[in-house]
Amino acid sequence: MSAQKIRLKKTKDTASIGRLASHDAKQAFLGVKHAFTRPFYWKKKDFKTLGAITLGLFALSSIDDESSAFLIRQEPNVPNIFQEAGTRFGSPQVYFIANAGLYGFGLFTKNETIRKTSVLIISSSFTTGLIQSFSKTAFGRARPENGYKSTEFRFWSNEPEFHSFPSGHTVLSITMAHAIAKQFDNTWSKVGVYTLGSVAPISRLFAGAHWLTDIALGTALSIVVVDSVDKFLFNTKAYDYPVKKKNRISWKLNFTGNKIGVVGVF
């Protein structure tokens, strides 16, 4: 480790709480700015990814109605604790309280890894939250539980029953899960984090609050934004990242015959 890097780390460790909070707030703001302006700098591979996501959503939409009807029928057999946990964990109130606690712990203990993780979550969730809130109103897609078809839209609707696309619970839970999973090198630790993060999206399907494509778009949006902000923080050396990231999961859309899925490659 170079002398310059040692001095930088020492400065961070001995900095006041106020200076650390100011630094983190600046990085969170820059992370949000980067996420929203990044599309202006997209390259060919980025547009290919967008095309793959769009194509995947169209393919998945062909089974929206049937899958939703099947999952809603299974809801009476799902443990209440699972549904309750999914509803609460994906709610904005619980989400922000949890992250505030996480960041507060990292700040007052001056733990840079926890602070960095929390800044990544804050930047990403603010970005994805704004996008999904705008999209819900703009698309005005009906929720399954109201007896409508998946193709029923009322654009720019203020009615809650027409705020299905994409899933807000999915955006929040997957954003947090993906940001936290990035901090682990152990594959099984990552799997555990993603499993917990999937509780909210799955519970919303059983409850008839969302279609499969709502969940799929929320997941894709979260992963893309978190990866973008994480790369920005890494490239700007805002925090002390490992020299080489190992055992990261590469998420890809997989098409085989009449099936479509999201595959995580370890």
UniProtKB/TrEMBL annotation:
Cross-referenced SUPFAM superfamilies: Acid phosphatase/Vanadium-dependent haloperoxidase
Pfam families: PAP2
Domain Phosphatidic acid phosphatase type 2/haloperoxidase: from-to ranges: 121-226
Protein name (database record): Phosphatase PAP2 family protein
Species for this entry: Flavivirga jejuensis
